[in-house]
Design a protein that fits this description.
The protein is mainly beta. The protein has two domains: 20-413, Pectate Lyase C-like; 418-492, Immunoglobulin-like, CATH 2.60.40. A hairpin with a 2-residue loop joins β3 (45-48) and β4 (51-54).
Amino acid sequence: MKKNYLLLLTLLSAAMPAGAQDYTTSGDGTSYSLETLSGIAGSGVTKDGTTYTMLSNVTIAEGDKFEIEDEATLKLGNDVQLRIEGEADLDALTGVVVTRNSETDEPKGIYIDSGQETVKVTNIDFEYCGLRGFITGTMEIDGCSFSHDTGAQSSAGALALATSGSSYRITNCTFTENYGAAIGGDANIACGVYIDNCQFTDNNTSNSNKPQINLTVGGDLDVTIKNSTFTGNKRDKVGAIAVANLLGIAGSNNVLIENCEMRDHRYGITTNGALNAVIKDNRIISNKYESNAMNGGSGISIYDSNQNQTAVITGNHIEDNLWGITIIGGLNINCGKTEDMTADDYNPGGNVFVNNGNGGQLFDLYNNGTSTVYAQGNKWNVTEQTAEEIEKVITHKADNAALGEVIYMPPMADGGIGTIAQGQSAYFDRTGNCIMAPSVVDGTAVEIYTLNGAHIGRYTVSGGVANLTGLQKGIYIARINTGDKLIVLKCAL
């Protein structure tokens, strides 16, 4: 029996790879790379050309530094992590790949637990593993890709945000078919996030109740998501973007979601709790794959039963969702307020609703809270933009006395935002970058404003035309006071 036991130990020892013990550097100020680690006996790192294999955990201790080589490939074994507690330099000039060692391995990836002011992660492709930033400063992630992460390192996301008060700047990155969310953090983690020019494709392949981006507010640090695309895979539990304040985190909690496109999700955008959101100029299309319309399927969903959230929703194209905009609570939800262009809460509206509905009925806007919601200057999914017709696609106090009112008149005019007087016609001609106003008296002033309400120019009508010469490309609001009526147009140069 004793001989058999000794034989078993011998076989087990032979099966274990050399250097399979975890390795921690000395913390004496030494700089390490994959190359230097591969030359240290007992590090568990081996080398084959520019490919390095790590079959056990390696920790770069506080006081030491790790620098990634250009054009290197790092293969990680099952459950293996490269942990950097010292200074991290992952600013690669050319492509680096961090991936699994074999098809059955599920490595954790890279964990940065650093107190340095700025950590740069550049030109690294993370495959079958993730990146976790447990930092106190700023992490700048540019030109990276994240694909097929298994969640072995963190259930928060392929890119996991892990420290309150830290900031993350994520630009020019792609996130594809990760098991969990692409980017996420826990509900008690309030950090600043800036995401620009990124692509998100079918993340959360596990189809758990998480969106592709799942963020908490940043307290006094802003959360910004802009110029990015979100492509879903028609999964019934996966939304595009969620930003929430579930634990009542104090601060300005500013959130901006701008110029993004999201298609084929359970829902498009949801904001939850006490925060200040601006949702503008997005294209939110076919986010309708919630199996039960009572549980989701909104292009935009505002949820705040404690009535602390403010939101400005403007210039969005909202099409083919189960619901256009749903509002459950909130302190001040402004989907368009065109009455006074000089007011602080002026919002030209400009939201366009197309074929949002379920159960054979159209739902452009559903005010399921008790507060009054302004929604002027929008184009509703009705043939005639009259109060009688618009009422058919809005649910509010007129349908249920317990609900808040939606103030939706005036709607968007044919050429833009506002109301055109009876018998007049005015519209913006994009081909000529001019306003056509044949029924407006020559010499009438045309005042030009930015979308934020700043006055930037004055033109006059001549021969029924106001040429908007000298304006740079952009979106503007034109205001024409004819004496008996105000005409307000949206002009996209």
